[in-house]
Amino acid sequence: MKSKIILVLAVIAISIGLYGMSQTSTTESPITEKVQEFDKRPEATVMVWIAKKDLMFGSPVQRTDLEVQRISQTQADRFGIIHDVKFNFNKKLLVKKDILQGDIVTSDMLLSPGQEGYLNLVISEGKVPFNLEVSNDAILGGAISVGDVVDIASISSSEQNLSNDASISNVQSLKMAPLLTQIMVLDIIQQEKPVRLNSKSTKTVTNLVLEVSNRELAKLVIAQRIAELEVHKSIGAEFSHELHADSSDVITIPGFKKVKPVNSIQEFRG
């Protein structure tokens, strides 16, 4: 009798165990399927730029020097790259350190205008940077970009200091002459400044960072204190003599005899 009871209990226990196993299997099956489905999803990719040739320290970088590739996020993580790498090729880009063909190029390998260390990298030996503040109206001859060559002319008067005076007392004494020609623009910085002290109105002021010699720097410092300066994109040193003009070219001055300027103070670069 006891053996029959034990047998019945054993059958019941086995049945309960088999039922529990079937329920567990049914419950875990969808989870397993979801995990497998997740594993089949394609891995995210990141856009990077690859050097098509060796790029040496200080050399400019063009769009044609690089090619776009997409790599897996796992590969990108090895280089510390999280998002797509993007460059503004409208700006001048210089190589901060040597880059070999096939290397991934990241933003910390290049320098652009405005970044720390850019001027030291781009400036020529024996030259110094000089900040020339001008209004937008003073930039004549169209847009000036970083890397352009400009000419600087001075507008002066023998009877007053035009750098300080807001009005001209005697228009007959005005003259314009080239001051410096073929000057390289290293950087352009634009910012908003108040029109006058405690004024809410602002104006856009442009600072040209110019590459000059010590001699040219001295001329600019003096010119800023006695004359107005006009800057325009250069069309060549051979045309700088055309920047000469005086009041008699615009208005008729009684008894005034026009004299062609000779040996004007100016500097030319070949």
Features:
alpha+beta, three-stranded antiparallel beta sheet, 2 domains, 270 residues, seven-stranded mixed beta sheet, disordered C terminus, 4 helices, elongated
Mean pLDDT: 78
* Total number of strands: 12
Assembly form of the protein: single chain
Helix content: 10-25%
Low-pLDDT runs: 262-268
Give the termini separation.
122 Å
Domain Flp pilus assembly protein RcpC/CpaB: 118-230
Organism: Aliivibrio fischeri (strain ATCC 700601 / ES114) (Vibrio fischeri)
Protein name: Flp pilus assembly protein CpaB family
Pfam families: RcpC (PF16976)
What's the helix and strand layout?
Elements: H1 2-39, E1 45-51, E2 66-72, H2 73-78, E3 94-95, E4 104-105, E5 110-111, H3 118-122, E6 128-135, E7 139-140, E8 149-157, E9 174-194, E10 202-212, H4 214-226, E11 228-233, E12 245-246
Parallel strand pairs: 7-11
Antiparallel strand pairs: 1-2, 1-4, 3-5, 6-10, 8-9, 8-11, 9-10, 9-12
